[in-house]
Every structure is written in structure tokens, then in C-alpha cells.
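Q&A FORM
Asked by: J.P.
Topic: structure of Heterokaryon incompatibility domain-containing protein

PROVIDED:
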Amino acid sequence: PFYYTISYTWGDEQDTVYIIINDAEMTVRVNCDYALRQALASEASKYLWIDAICIDQMATQERNHRVAMMGKVYSRAAHVLACVGNHADDS
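REPLIED BY: S.T.
REPLY: Here is the structure written out as C-alpha cells.
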């Protein structure tokens, strides 16, 4: 399917928020939430791939397998969005 990938910095693991994905609540880092909001504001594809959500971070074997496949995931995306963080006051 037609999808966009999102590349971003993970940020502080203690700095988290709750989000709803497919009617399920999950915790993500603030930077992930910000990157998702930016993608949605830009009217990106409704199909987004972001590692923190699409890879089960608690399942070590699955995570290692999926991380090894990230090159393919990014290369097959219609677009790759990069989020470098919040705007600075002077930017």
C-alpha cells in the first residue's frame, strides 16, 4: 500500500504522552507524538510507518528482525518525512 515513513529523533525516554492508534491507547515519546502531528498537519498519506509504533519494542526478537528490515521499509515508502524537532524561537 501507499505509505509514508517518518524519521525522527527518539528523545528522552522519560518524556512520554498517551496517544490513540486504531482505538488502542499507547505510550510514545513526545518526539514521536510531535512527528506524527506534523505529518498529519501536512496532509501526508493516511498510512504512516513510524518505528516506535510499528515495531513492538518489547519483543526483542521481533524488534531485531524488523530493525534489520528498515532499509526496505524506507526504500519502498512513497515518501520519507523527516522531523528534526520543535521550531526554535529564532527559526
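FOLLOW-UP: The beta strands are 4-8, 16-21, 24-29, 48-49, 79-83.
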